[in-house]
Amino acid sequence: MKGFLGVLPPVLLLDPMLRVWLMEDIGRGDRTTQALLSQHHTSVQARWVAKAEGIIAGLPIAARVFYLLNDQINFVALKAEGDKCQAGEVVAEITGAWDGLLMGERVALNLVMRLSGIASLTNMYVEKIADLPTKFVDTRKTTPGLRILEKYASAVGGATNHRMGLDDAVMIKDNHIVAAGSITKAIQQVRSQVPYPLSIEVETEAIEQVEEALQCQAEIIMLDNMSLDLMTQAVSLIRQQDKRVKIEASGNISLDTIRSVAQVGVDFISSSAPVTQSRWLDLSMRLM
């Protein structure tokens, strides 16, 4: 990969989460490591080895896990974020007190395996449409407590982040439309209260809804669960009436369908699949 759009969370946000996860795992103490501690005070070296091919994400976060346990532990990433690794390849080397390495091993590995799995599947989607102008974006279907990291991994894989939360954009979905009474009423009510410069996106499922969203000057129109034929009609209508409107396609997007959807001419394709369907990238730590 030639780079990614991911921005590492600042330690102000990251460290409190990592401390909670470390405390969850360590509990009242690592009984195994502590029982052996009096016999082993030396510094040791370890390697992280990939057991499958994939895209690496989260190594700087793993380094922070070990730092919180012992700031003398030296974690050296041998792969940059977004790099591809092969099975058997060493992706990181760690040197430091052996108790710190063993107590931090599981939390650090779990995070990197989870994030690398997301980055790997995301990249497969991104590569399917790499030669087209359509951008692949993620969703809010994330694990509670892990959103900032899972969206970071998505960006490492090459996706563009969609909303991080309910507060950074307006998306009028089907239930909002039902609650308001219509797309027109929903947009009118939201527009009278939304702060500048938040944009308004409307979810549509039929041509009539697309027309209504256009009349109300929505900035982004989502084509949700539409067939390719219906989506083609909707894109043509939107482009003819207002070329400034951005178009997002969503719903039932898979590796088999994403390219056909992109070729319709939408600006964005969103999917939760890289987060909800990805498998962890298997890694192991081996003391040397």
Key words describing this protein structure:
single chain, 288 residues, alpha/beta, Aldehyde Oxidoreductase, domain 3, TIM Barrel, 2 domains, six-stranded parallel beta sheet, 11 helices, nicotinate-nucleotide diphosphorylase (carboxylating) activity, Aldolase_TIM, Quinolinate_PRibosylTase_N_sf
What would your notes on this structure say?
- With 288 residues, the protein is of the alpha/beta class.
- The chain has 2 domains: 9-119 and 277-285, Alpha-Beta Complex (Aldehyde Oxidoreductase, domain 3); 126-275, TIM Barrel.
- The chain is built from 11 helices and 12 strands.
- The strands form 3 sheets. Strands 6-11-10-9-8-7 form a 6-stranded parallel sheet. It has a 4-stranded antiparallel sheet with strand order 3-5-1-12, with helices on one face.
- The mean pLDDT is 94.
